[in-house]
Design brief:
The chain has helices at about 40-45, 55-65, 75-85, 85-100, 125-155, and strands at about 5-10, 15, 35, 70, 105-110, 110-115, 120-125. The protein is of the alpha+beta class. The radius of gyration is 26 Å and the shape is elongated. The termini are far apart.
Length: about 160
């Protein structure tokens, strides 16, 4: 004997063909805090012999605090408290990240500076904004190159 399973609408009494299946809301553990990274940049970071443990710890914390458009607003005191490091260690690590061009110093906000992750190492935000950033940077570089070439022409 073949069974036919159906559901019915309690308001109208209409028989509904098929089987009602409930799919719960799926929990996504990665739903917040996404950043895109360049694999080439990650390899550069991993193979840089000058980057040490405390510098990596500071970098990872900064990445975790990354806001849209790669802005990071945190004081060195907050970093030192979160990582349980001395302020001098944090200062040294931030300086190394700046010297390497991994983190760019931004405007002063209150008593501390904002920072920005160099977009060549990663990006948080709309990809179109990353493309706009890169185009603007490339245009500035090209303008600078033209200016230098004109200066060389004048000197010769």
């Amino acid at each position: 004997m073949r069974r036919k399973i159906a559901s019915f609408d309690q308001d109208t009494g209409e028989i509904l063909e098929g089987v009602l299946v409930y799919c719960g809301v799926k929990h996504n553990p990665y739903s917040t805090g996404w950043i895109m990274n360049s694999q080439e940049a990650l390899k550069l970071l991993a193979t840089d012999k000058e980057l040490k443990g405390e510098t990596y710890k500071v970098l990872l914390l900064l990445l975790s605090l990354l806001d849209f458009e790669n802005w990071i607003q945190v004081t060195q005191k907050e970093i030192s408290e979160t990582l349980e490091m001395r302020k001098s260690q944090v200062s040294r690590a931030v300086n190394v990240l700046e010297e390497k061009g991994i983190v760019l110093k931004g405007p002063k906000v209150g008593r501390s500076y904002a920072f920005r992750l160099n977009p060549d190492f990663g990006w948080k935000g709309d990809v179109r904004n990353l493309n706009d950033y890169r185009k603007k940077r490339d245009d500035q570089w090209l303008k600078k190159q033209k200016k230098e070439a004109l200066k060389l022409d004048k000197d010769t």
